[in-house]
Amino acid sequence: MNFSLRPGVPRKDYLHDAQGTVSVRFKTAGVAMDGFTALAVADLGAAVEFTKSKSALVVYTGLAESGVADHPALAAELVRLSWETWDDSLLAVSQVVTAQSGILMTSAASMASAEVRLHAGAGQAQLGLADLAAKASILRAEGLSERWTGGKCTPFFRVVRLRKRWFRDAEADYAPRQPGRGAGPVPVPPVLLEEALDDPDAVLETVEPEEQLGSEPSGQ
């Protein structure tokens, strides 16, 4: 399915709240500081320490959100596809949030740590967590279960499908579908398309992340 997208809407930077289980200590360039082993004196960087296992530090900058401009049309298209296949597992990505840069670390054990070298152009006078996500590189990591830093990515997206109850009601009313008089396919009942176009929220529902594993979206 191809749909026109809304222009990207800028969003605030994203910072995961680790509830005090992660600390970040910044180092300015040209200054030697205790506790830094991988960063050189000339480096601008930060030391990250985790006090609990399964804690996370996640920062994304330059966020922008875009999505399908015509939700009624998306709902109607899913109705058409489901009618053709009689399959209620079809998914569609309706919204995405892109980031210009980001950093992610998760701890495998308590007392995990890392050293990050920051981009040389970062403002040393007012270093903040957002600077961790701007062209940073992880020089040392101990006790981390996952680590990533990089450029443009898509950290968030929304997946939708036909509501299960709506599909069951349609199935009860129209299944098994009766074959047409000719060789052509049976057309979608107009009432189903009208409902999708008039009230897409009554037809579509958001798919929870754990349900998306192993599924492939059917469109944008």
| Low-confidence residue ranges | none
**Apparent shape:** elongated
Mean pLDDT across every amino acid position: 86
Quickly give the structural class. alpha+beta
Oligomeric grouping of the chains = single chain
Major β-sheet strand ordering: 1-6-7-12-13
In short:
By secondary structure, the chain is α+β, with helices and mostly antiparallel strands. The protein has helices at 71-85, 164-174, 190-198, 200-203, 209-212; strands at 9-10, 14-15, 22-27, 45-50, 56-61, 64-67, 92-99, 101-107, 113-117, 137-142, 144-150, 153-162, 204-206. 20% of the residues lie in helices and 33% in strands.
Walkthrough of the structure:
This protein is of the alpha+beta class. The protein is 20% helix and 33% strand. It is built from five helices and 13 strands. The protein has helices at residues 71-85, 164-174, 190-198, 200-203, 209-212, and strands spanning 9-10, 14-15, 22-27, 45-50, 56-61, 64-67, 92-99, 101-107, 113-117, 137-142, 144-150, 153-162, 204-206. The strands form three sheets. It has a five-stranded antiparallel beta sheet. A four-stranded antiparallel beta sheet has the order 2-5-8-11, with no helix packed on it. The chain has a four-stranded antiparallel beta sheet with strand order 3-4-9-10, with no helix packed on it. Helix 1 runs antiparallel to helix 3 (190-198). The longest helix is centred in the middle third of the chain and has 15 residues, at 71-85. It is elongated and about 75 Å long. The model has no long low-confidence stretch (mean pLDDT 86).
